[in-house]
Amino acid sequence: MKKDILGIKIDDVTMEEALEIALSFTKCDSAKTVYTPNAEIAMVALQDNEFLDILNQGDLVIPDGAGVVLASKIINNPLRQKVAGFDLSSSMLKDPRFHGKTFFFLGAKPGVAEKAVDMVKVSNPNLQVVGIQHGYFKEDETQQIIRTINNLQPDILFVGLGAPRQEKWIHTHKDHLNAKLIMGIGGTIDGLAGEVKRAPDVFVKWNLEWLYRLVKQPKRFGRMLNIPSFLCQAVRYRMKTKKQMS
Ligand code: UDP
């Protein structure tokens, strides 16, 4: 079930439910889209109508971050749990129910997806990656990339070009792509390759992943101001609705 979080329609799913839905998408005929807004990206969507529309047309839109879940609680429309895009896409690569599915990776710097696939294959030798394309291509190379993907017909196409570019790319091309599930995965390829370290468990437990990212990648500071901005929007919304009710 989708919940409206400040205008963004987000599925109130658990990780297990998200995996089941993703699996069901791989059995569909037309391409289904999966998007993973966190609070940082959600705030971008509130300032970019085109992006907001695209997110709201997503077939599965998961709450990728404690910030989105906290905002949902502030506005009294609570989402049950955070479902990180990194965890969902990694689970798809490792879950036996997805064995036999074919994957295509589009995104990250040259060589990084190859490294990511090699690392995942160490513990998942059955993983079937049929193609890899780095994310630093020119606009006029897009059609050739789409032809390559379509020749390989992957069940699952992971697109890691960063938000909102990847969602716009997916939305523009999905009807011409021969894949069953197309998911925007942000920096997941970097994470899988070990190029960007994931926050240690203690940061995750205390919902402080943002702090770890900030320390490790200080150039993200500007973007990360979106997180408190999104929470402020939630507080303002809550105060407005309270006033209207009293
Ligand atoms: N990226 C890319 N092509 C570009 C710009 C970025 O493939 O033109 C990749 C980049 O190498 C990284 C990912 O997109 O792997 C963006 O990661 P980030 O963590 O910034 O994702 P976001 O938080 O924006 O979803």
Task: Report on the architecture of this protein.
It is a single chain. This protein has helices at 15-25, 39-46, 49-56, 66-74, 85-94, 112-123, 142-152, 165-173, 188-193, 201-205, 209-216, 221-224, 226-245; strands at residues 2-5, 8-11, 32-35, 60-61, 102-107, 128-133, 156-160, 181-184. It is an alpha/beta fold and 246 residues long. It has one domain. The strands form 2 sheets. A 6-stranded parallel beta sheet has the order 4-3-8-7-5-6, sandwiched between helices. Strands 1-2 form a two-stranded antiparallel ribbon. Helix 1 packs across helix 5 (85-94), helix 2 (39-46) packs across helix 3 (49-56) and helix 2 (39-46) crosses helix 13 (226-245). The longest helix has 20 residues, at 226-245. It is globular, with a radius of gyration of 18 Å. The mean pLDDT is 96. Uridine-5'-diphosphate (UDP) is lined by residues 107-109, 135-136, 160-163, 186-187, 189-190.
Give the helix/strand class: alpha/beta
**Ions, cofactors and other bound molecules:** uridine-5'-diphosphate
Count of alpha and pi helical runs: 13
Name the strands of the widest sheet in spatial order.
Answer: 4-3-8-7-5-6
Q: What is the quaternary state of this protein?
A: single chain
Q: Please bin the fraction of helical residues.
A: 40-55%
H/E element order:
EEHEHHEHHEHEHEHEHHHHH
Largest sheet, if any? 6 strands, parallel
